[in-house]
Amino acid sequence: MTASIQETLVSDSQAPWRRWARRHGWTFGVWILLLVLIAYYATLIPRFGAFQVASIVNNGTPLVFLAVGQAIIVIAGGIDLGVGGMLVLSSVTAARLMEGQPLLVALLIAVGILLAAAAINAVVAWIINVSKVPDIVITLGSLYFFQGLALAILPNPAGGANEWFRWLFTGSKTGIGSNPWPAIVMITITVTAIGWWLGKTKRGLSLYAVGSDKTAAYLSGLNAARVKILSYAIGGAFAALAGLANTAIAGRGNANTVGGNLTLNSVAAIVLGGVALTGGIGSVIAVIPAGLILFFLSPILTAMGVDPNSAQVVQGVLIVLVMAVTGIIEWRRRLRS
Amino acid sequence: MSTPPTTAPLVESEEPTQLQKVARYLINHPHVVLIGVLIVLILVTGAIESNYLSFSGLRNSALFAVPIGVLAAGQTILMLTGGIDLSAAMIATGAAYVAANQSPKGAAIAIVAGLLVGIIAGAANGIGVGVFRVHPIIMTLAMSGILLGLFTSWAQTIFSGSTRMGDFIRTLGGGSIFGRTLPWAVIVWAFLSLLIIYMLRRSGFGRTLYALGDNPVASRLSGLRSWRVLVAVYTLAGLLGAIAGLLLGGRVGAVDLQLANNFLLPSVAAAVIGGTSIFGGVGTYTGTILGALILGVLQSMLTFLGAGQAIQQMLYGSIVIGLSWLYTRIAAAQ
After folding, report:
1. 3-state SS assignment for residue B164
2. Which of A35, A257, B34, B242 keeps 20 to 30 A from A287, CA to CA?
3. Number of structural domains found in chain A
4. How far apart are CA A213 and CA A208, in angstroms?
5. What distance in Å separates the CA atoms of residue B199 and residue B232, rounded to the nearest whole number?
6. Long-range CB contacts for residues B34-39, cutoff 8 Å, separation at least 24
7. Does any domain span residue A210?
8. Residue A279: how many CA atoms within 13 Å on its side-chain side?
């Protein structure tokens, strides 16, 4: 997970399967963990069928999108505490505008929200670039700004969404059903597309380059400031997509949702998904199962007879443990060199 | 680090004009600016609502500033070391919750139990940041989630009893001496302020915080054990958070798990307004006190204007972004 470039070079001379394991082992492991957890969950509850699968996939969708957005920003060397606020903002805007609209108008509104979110987050990245204030401080400000704006747009839980728009994210016109396929297709298309873009195109790889070493990327001719803006814009659009999914699931918007907790979940998901918070390392494909696992913790704990509020405790402890272990590895490596 | 070429170099003319001299003076004496801003805000608020310019009006602003100021004391000492505490509000809430729960057993036990919450959570933060080198934001954000989960769960089990604060803490948070004039909370804050200002200016520990934040490598090479300092300072910040929680809970009277939620960003904002740098090594608690008072007056003004939570959050968010930007520019110019 914290393989340095040196190790990657060494691994090229090793057996192909070891190279594969080194490169994709973490991704593979997280997917296996998700399947094991689902299998375990199936033994815990009396009836496990399409409804349960749909419930996990559908309700986990917002966190998956949010975490993918965070992953893109973190891979490019930033961190956006504002994604949770962006989710809430997008969700309430959608709920307010979409109420009573036909599907076509709803889709146009959705596209408009995605573009607006990308533009707003691009401005946030621009401020980080120009002010040279750490990402964390500026986005702490933007988190509260978005949350306040959301509250101004929709002071009380209200609004609605077109029923076919709800079907698009949940496979059901009422938001509750046994059809996980629309959500699965939605996640697969968007995340595979962005994963392909990140790993295979020149522009996408520039995010990894800037994230792993800003100075080296700059010296080799990349415009680091522009790459940061690009990563924040895409990340913001994914956060907004998470907000749209949220509106589709709930059928309305709630500005009292605490964006800070959502941000924390997104950070937890990318840490579990093997994205290094120092930037430059990670895969968005591994973030899908990580996001689903984090959402999945609370139903599992409930099924085990443990207070579902412990899920939050488990998440927090998990982040700290992963960070502590990687922190110590990094520190020892630095001491040795 | 390389400087991206997009920023234009700061052009300085040879002959400083009168305006530039004034600007330079103000840049070197930020507290003068802060006091000026505070006075202007008080006058503007007075213009909006004439009743405000009275003892009770100003007293309300001061009362609002107390929990911000105490929480911001924790943020200030942490920001000096390059850290931050995003769990401060949750620590305050947890401390108040436990204190309210233990109130039937007497004031002393309630206060000690509340403060213990802050000490334990703060020490855990310190161990995470100092020993295991977790980034302060991640560590404290995670701690905030952990505390929220624990207390939501405990509220139905081991702390399911009273949510009403004991009379002694209520007096401390909301009562006054000399009739209805001088609030106890303000006295407690003033006392804490003297201690913190003394600590930062005169004590070896205080100077260590500046050294660590200014240059961690140099402090390590000169023999400083940074992990001990970090554990100590995060524990102290946790304790301050708990005190803020008790004062706030005492003023409100009854506690719930949202008690201090709205005070997290103002506490960071107060330190940022006061000129404490998030990079570490720069800042004073005097500045933070002025920042807290400014936010207290701002709160009164927004209340008179009928601005709700929405406007306040956007405003605080903008203040954090705008001022951290401004101070970074000033620091670069110096």
Report:
1. strand
2. A257
3. 1
4. 9
5. 13
6. B34/B273, B34/B274, B34/B275, B34/B287, B34/B290, B34/B291, B34/B294, B35/B290, B37/B294, B38/B290, B38/B293, B38/B294, B38/B297
7. yes
8. 21
What Å distances lie between residue A94 and A63, A148, A240, B160, CA to CA? 17, 16, 10, 39
Distance of CA A298 to the CA centre of its chain: 18
pLDDT tens-digit profile of A46-65?
888 888 888 888 899 999 99
Q: What residue type is B49 in one-letter code? A: E
Tens of pLDDT, residues B55-91? 888 888 888 899 999 999 999 999 999 899 989 999 9
Nearest chain A Cα to B155, which residue? A309
Which stretches of B175-284 are DSSP H helices?
184-202, 204-214, 216-221, 226-252, 264-273
| A2 occurs within a structural domain | no
ipTM for the predicted complex comes to: 0.81
CB contact under 8 A, A140 and B318: no
Interface test with B, best of A309, A321, A330 (most B CBs within 10 A): A309
Q: How far apart are CA B86 and CA B142, in angstroms?
A: 9
Q: Tokens representing B257?
A: 């798990």
Specify if A9 maps to a domain: no
Query: Closest Cα of chain B to A153: distance in Å?
Result: 9
CB contact under 8 A, A316 and B142: yes
What is the domain extent for residue A67?
Answer: 59-336
Residue B40: what residue type? V
Residues 6+ apart with CB under 8 A from B87: B121, B125, B140, B141, B143, B144, B147, B241
A6 assigned to some structural domain: no
